[in-house]
């Protein structure tokens, strides 16, 4: 006997009614996607970012006013595929830059791979990232392997300089590296000697190798794309091992300095060279398998690399962090033509904020966990000592897709003061000669009277917009102050420092946009909007009234974007304590 259970008729009718209502809601959402802020003043057709245009619909309500609308079919956690060349705007060339590079994924733990060793001394090696890319020398068309390493020595008291940057061990000059390439079938293996370059401030090493001879016809930028793709795939599907060892064969003692204590190094040199036993000591080997290479990403024009973000709870509410200024900072740079910001953060919860920011503004900003690299850092400098290493990681990891990278802090704003139009910073960079590898820009400070009457009352503050003032000044002529930051061309930059300088490839040069060297209409500035300003600032220079008038529409447009209810939800981040 079969027993059939049935529901009363009123339950069936109620269920059908609820399904009908749900269907209507879904259809309405498909026709009219969720609004992300009204009256922003954004003209979608004028947006410089191809990614932003692809993920946002615009619907006219009244002339010159639009609604930001999310693409309902877009998963904000997944970056889009390679854009079609026709969708590119000012943030890239007329056709997308080819994927000519490979770069490793972050490690699952650090995000760097950590190797501890006890011989010849107690220490740790950190593999930061490895990439395969065209040479950074302008006249060299061959591809190279570049790998970033940090070398730490236990109980090395003098490895922090001025309580800011990390200091690699004095034994690093005794380290040797090779790249061992093996093809996918496993029948070809070649070991290539590497060169290692100290960054010059003793913060990390750059290890470089040429490619193996079994890559058909080599691998150069002059070859057809199909040959380059085949060569890169051949490398990607095989393995690459980066081997290390210490070589004391010709070790020469060195005198200690106020920065570097060479006592242990000299003891090791004497022990190994006199006995001639164990002069070659194997070190860690880092293996890169096919799954360790990252997937291709969309190409960008201008990006920003930031130092690791530290979330500081509000004094009045320890469970929340005030991120309003960070929202303003990101919107400002979106307007300046910055396609992506590469965020590094000490706290993994920050990723939820980045995901929401990407969804609301249609961006593709990246996020990487950035814990303090070493417990050896003194407490006074622990939050800052490894920032150069993370900056180097940003160049290696994202330089494969970025054309330009700026290295600035959250109280610094890219600005072309006489150009209030969209993408002004990007346009300035695109005007420069092809042999320019780095552009330095002076810090500027704005003061005098704040032009608050031109702004929405909710955004009348002394911090935003950062240039809404009547006077300005620079520290160019004053000694003892850091006065510049830089934008670097990734195809020309081999190594970087935290604030301004870079080691460029041969054939590239650096120029500076200074107050006296450049015409004011095109000069790039790094507006330093710090809360406590140097007392030496006198704000001698008046801002022309016509310049203030020219910026009115831009300030109003920025205020319109920031007024969206969705963005205001990002002003606070709950820590979940």
From TrEMBL:
Keywords: Glycosyltransferase, Membrane, Transferase, Transmembrane, Transmembrane helix
Domain of life: Eukaryota
Single GO term (MF): glycosyltransferase activity
Pfam families on file: Glyco_transf_92
Membrane topology: Single-pass membrane protein
Main location: membrane
Region (Disordered): 69-98
InterPro entries xrefs: Glyco_transf_92
Cell compartments where the protein resides: Membrane
Gene Ontology CC terms: cytoplasm; membrane
PANTHER family for the chain: GLYCOSYLTRANSFERASE FAMILY 92 PROTEIN
Protein family according to the UniProt entry: Belongs to the glycosyltransferase 92 family.
Name listed for the protein in its UniProt record: Glycosyltransferase family 92 protein
């Amino acid at each position: 006997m079969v027993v059939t259970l049935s529901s009363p008729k009123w339950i069936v009718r109620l269920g059908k009614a609820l399904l009908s209502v749900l269907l209507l809601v879904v259809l309405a959402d498909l026709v009219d996607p969720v609004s992300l802020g009204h009256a922003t003043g954004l003209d979608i057709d004028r947006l410089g970012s191809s990614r932003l245009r692809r993920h946002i619909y615009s619907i006219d309500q009244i002339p010159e006013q639009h609604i930001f609308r999310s693409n309902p079919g877009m998963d904000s956690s997944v970056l889009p595929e390679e854009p079609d060349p026709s969708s590119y705007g000012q943030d890239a060339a007329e056709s997308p830059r080819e994927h000519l590079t490979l770069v490793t994924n972050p490690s699952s733990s650090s995000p760097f791979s950590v190797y501890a060793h006890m011989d010849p001394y107690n220490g740790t090696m950190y593999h930061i990232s490895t990439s395969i890319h065209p040479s950074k020398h302008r006249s060299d068309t061959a591809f190279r392997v570049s790998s970033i390493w940090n070398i730490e020595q236990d109980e090395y008291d003098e490895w922090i300089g001025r309580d800011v940057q990390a200091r690699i061990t004095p034994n690093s000059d005794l380290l040797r590296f090779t790249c061992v390439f093996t093809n996918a079938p496993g029948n070809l293996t070649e070991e290539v000697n590497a060169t290692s370059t100290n960054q010059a401030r003793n913060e990390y090493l750059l290890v470089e190798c040429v490619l193996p001879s079994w890559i058909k016809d080599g691998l150069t930028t002059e070859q057809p794309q199909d040959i380059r793709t085949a060569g890169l795939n051949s490398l990607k599907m095989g393995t690459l091992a980066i081997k290390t060892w210490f070589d004391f064969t010709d070790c020469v003692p060195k005198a200690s300095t106020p920065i570097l204590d060479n006592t242990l190094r000299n003891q090791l040199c004497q022990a190994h060279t006199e006995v001639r036993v164990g002069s070659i000591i194997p070190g860690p080997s880092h293996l890169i398998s096919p799954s360790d290479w990252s997937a291709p990403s969309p190409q960008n024009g201008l990006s920003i690399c930031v130092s690791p973000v530290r979330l500081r709870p509000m004094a009045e509410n320890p469970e929340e962090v005030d991120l309003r200024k960070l929202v303003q900072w990101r919107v400002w740079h979106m307007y300046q033509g910055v396609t992506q910001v590469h965020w590094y953060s000490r706290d993994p919860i920050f990723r939820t904020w980045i995901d929401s920011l990407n969804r609301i503004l249609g961006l593709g900003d990246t996020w990487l966990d950035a814990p303090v690299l070493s417990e050896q850092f003194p407490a006074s400098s622990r939050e800052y000592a490894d920032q150069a290493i993370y900056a180097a990681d940003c160049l290696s990891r994202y330089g494969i897709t970025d054309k330009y990278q700026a290295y600035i802090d959250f109280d610094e704003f890219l600005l072309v003061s006489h150009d209030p139009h969209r993408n002004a910073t990007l346009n300035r960079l695109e005007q420069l000669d092809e042999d320019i590898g780095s552009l330095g820009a002076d810090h500027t400070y704005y003061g005098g009277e704040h032009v608050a009457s031109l702004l929405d009352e909710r955004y009348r503050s002394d911090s935003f917009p950062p240039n809404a003032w009547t006077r300005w000044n620079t520290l160019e002529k004053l000694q003892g102050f850091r006065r510049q930051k830089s934008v670097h061309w990734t195809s020309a930059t081999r190594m970087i420092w935290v604030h301004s300088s870079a080691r460029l490839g041969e054939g590239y040069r650096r120029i500076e946009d200074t107050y006296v060297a450049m015409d004011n209409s095109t000069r790039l500035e790094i507006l330093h909007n710090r809360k406590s300003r140097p007392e030496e600032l006198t704000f001698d220079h008046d801002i022309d009234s016509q310049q203030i008038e020219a910026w009115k529409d831009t300030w109003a447009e920025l205020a319109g974007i920031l007024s969206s209810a969705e963005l205001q939800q990002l002003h606070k981040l709950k820590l979940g304590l």
